[in-house]
Structures are given as C-alpha cells and as structure tokens.
Amino acid sequence: MTDRRDTRLSVLFIFATLTLNSMGVGLILPVMPDLIRDVTGGDIAEAAGWGGILATSYAVMQFLFAPTVGALSDRFGRRPVLLVSLAVLAADYVVLALAGSIWLLLAARLVGGITSATQSTAAALISDLSTPEDKARNFGLLGAAFGIGFVFGPVIGGLLAEFGTRAPFWVAAGLASVNLIFGASVLKETVTDEIRRPFDLRRSNPFSVFAKLREMPSLLPLLTLFFLYEFAFLVFPSTWAYFTQARFGWDTATVGLSLATFGIAMAAVQGGLIGIVLRRLGETRTIVWGFLFNTLTFALLAVVGNGTAILLLAPLSALGAVVTPALQSRIANTVAVDSQGEVQGLLASVRAVAMIFSPLVMTQTFRAFSGADAVANVPGAAFLLAMGLMIVALLINASLCRAAPASQSA
Fold first, then answer.
1. Rounded distance, CA 11 to CA 401, Å?
2. Dihedrals phi, psi of 45, to nearest 5 degrees
3. Alpha carbon separation from 329 to 229, 270, 274, 282, 324 (Å, rounded)
4. Are residues 186 and 217 in the same domain?
5. Stretches in the chain below the pLDDT threshold 50
6. Radius of gyration over alpha carbons of the chain, in Å?
7. At 346, is the secondary structure helix, strand, or coil?
8. pLDDT digits (tens, 9 = 90+) for 357-391
9. Which residues does 134 contact at the CB level (< 8 Å), separation at least 6?
C-alpha cells in the first residue's frame, strides 16, 4: 500500500512540475511586451524584436540540453535532476522579476531553457513508476499537464499583471518553490544500480536524430509539410501579445483571455474533434482542408480591424490544428512498424527546430512592419507570412497527391 501511495504521489509531482513548466511559459506571454518596453525604453515594435530573441534563445537551450539532461538522469538519477532543475527554475523567475536590463532577461531565458529541458526525465520517471497497464494512462497525464498549463497560464498572467509586470514572475517563483518542497518530500529515486548507465557525451548530441533522414529519404516532403505548418502556427504565441496591443490596444488581461480561449479550443480539437474529422474526411483531405482553413484564418487575422471579431476568431483559428495529428498519422503509416520510435523522435526534432526559428522570424517581421521606422504600417504582416507558408504547403501537398497515384499505377 505504501509503495502504491508513493507512486501516486510521485506521479502527482511530475504532473504538477510539467503543468508549472507549461504554465510558466503562458504566464509571462501577456506581460512580455510591457516588461521588455520597461527595461529597454523602446516601442512595441522593438519589444517584439527582443521578444523573438528571448523566445528563440529559450527554445535553443531546450533543444540543445534535452538529451544531456536525460542522460544525466540515467547516470545520477531522476530525483536530483528534477529537484535541481526546479530549484534553478524558481531562482530564474526571481531574476526575471528583478531584471533591470534586457541582457539579464536574456540570461534568465537561457537558463530557463535549460531547466525546462526535463520532459525526457519526467517521461522516464513515469515509465519507471508505471506498470504496463498504467503506462498509457500515466503518459496521457503528461499531455494533460501541458494543456492545463497553457490554458491557465495566460489567464493568470494577464490578471496578475494588474499588480505590475513583475507580479507573474514572483507568483511563478513561489509555485516552483512549493512544488520543490513537495517533490523533496515525496519523490523516490527510481534509478537503481541495475539500470544506472554511465554518462556518455555521444548520447547528448541533439542533432544525431537528423542522421535518420539518410535512411528514410521518402519522408523529406512530408517532414517539410510538418515543418512549414509548425513554423507558421507558432505565429500565435510569438506575436499575439505584441500584435493585439499594437493593433487594438488590448491590455494584458484581454491578451491572456484570448490566449486561454485559443488553448481550450486547441485541446478540444486535438482531444476530440480530430477523430470525427478524420473519420469523415480521411487523412489526405483533412490535411488539405486544414491547410486551406489556416490560409483563410491567417489572412483574416492580418486584415480584420475589429478587436471583438479578432477575439472571436482566435479560438476558431485553433480548428486548423487538425493538420498536426493528420500529418503525424500519415507519416507514421509511411514507415515500417519497427521504425515508429525513430520517426517520432524525428518529428520532435523538426518541431524543436521550428520553435527555434519561427519566433525570431515572426517577431522580426512584425517589427519591420510596425513602429515609427516601419517599412509599411502592416501589424498583421507576420500572419501574412504564415499565410504564404500555408500556400507553399498546399502546393507541395498537391504535388505529393499527384505523384502518389502515378507511383501506384506504375
């Protein structure tokens, strides 16, 4: 009974940790424009430029250090890696709350990216703790944690911003500290001497997964579609707070509310609606209609000048998220059964690369077409860029669909 109780508490700790990690990202999204303007003294366009740099630096560190953190947990154990990461994360939020320069914000985001690279360790701990019958359910909790964090993070961040741009960081630091104490009290080590592995730097190479492309060249067009979609869809978290403030003068609470409704809609699409759509349309038509819907949505977001209409359009735009699971299914069905793990790792790496470059490109596009020295006053320029990427994806997909019947008939 004690072992089962310890297991439940450990799983609860992992759930809380991943929820807080996800919430921490969403928590600061609504306040980043005001915080950056506070420390730089610039306008909203300059703030967006720096916002992209901060987001990209965070994603780069997360991508580079995820294999290393996982390898360290195989050597030293899950417990110390997770607890140290939480302690550093709490301190990182304090630095963000006190930061008086953009360079200190950048340093804090770099450190934050490293501390957030614990998903693989958390997943390994879940695997260690779970019986074969419980694994699927417990892994499902990991996805639920990310969803809950993304939904509530922006709302809480927007509301806390009423007490100042630094308030969300102090609350995030407090939550991380409470969770650290909880983890130190309940978390048991699962890495025993029998399964402990020596640390090998070669297993820490985040680029090694791309070598698999040489073995599966037929996947390149499909992975290109996946990359284009992920790159384009990241326009929302990358530019939304800056775009809506510049275009409609939204406050942080409204920005947080709109991001939360978008997150809820995303969860509904990924969790339920996608099954209905796939049954009705199939993979191929779901991908086509998804790209078309995204093209239209990005165009509307770029040109519609009514804030209320945009607030209603934000959750509807999440319907375009049917593309991701449909593409993942199509890619998975393209390769052999014994290659599924490699392919999923490849997809995760492609998504990580999109998360590195998209915030930088999207925010710099917004900056170029906003502010006093703008090339032209088009705050929705980043959404027009996303629309263009969707058109390119449609053309590539059309060529793949034309090639498929030809190869089958041959």
1. 44
2. -65, -45
3. 15, 13, 11, 10, 9
4. no
5. 1-2, 338, 406-410
6. 22
7. helix
8. 999 999 999 988 987 777 788 889 999 999 999 99
9. none
